[in-house]
Design a protein that fits this description.
Elements lengths: L2 H45 L6 H17 L1 H6 L7 H4 L4 H36 L13 H30 L4 H10 L5
Helix pairs in contact: 1-2, 1-6, 2-6, 5-6, 6-7
Amino acid sequence: MSEPLSGVVRLLDRINAAAAWLARWSVLLMLAIGIWNVVGRYLGSAIGINLSSNGLIEAQWYLFDLIFLLGLGWTLQKQGHVRVDVLQSRWSPRRRNRQELNSILLLLLPFAFGVMAISIAPALRSWSIAEMSPDPGGLPRTWVKSLIPLGFLLLGLQGIAEALRLRLALAHPEAAQAAEEQRQGGGTML
């Protein structure tokens, strides 16, 4: 892989790996809050004290949003998104790479950057009005609405990294194996 493009791909891989690291730890926090919400509901009912709140319930689903949205790019990096391999399994590696590159350029990138662009205005509006949950004791909605453009930005950036990897593999078939090894090893700071 050419050195400047290889550096860009490694940087994008590391950005998504860092986002995935945050998402991974958020799973534990979400589970802890979920357990507390269940225990607090029953224990609080037994002792006559409210041990849960709307804020804790909303925190649980906000963390789920964070996990899902920050994990989009990393899942693409690790080839974890659903693919229909019925036809691809019969294709040569070169044809498979060409098809994958075209799919990224024509479908994934317009979708990811389109959702990102559409979701920026509602996120900014939420910040401008300091949007809060309508539920008593709820959390601000600004942070969760900001995760939408951020998550799709990360997906789009990883799509660029994958497209660069595929383009270089198509241009230099002899280096395709090295590019595949870098993809498998890229972003392993988790």
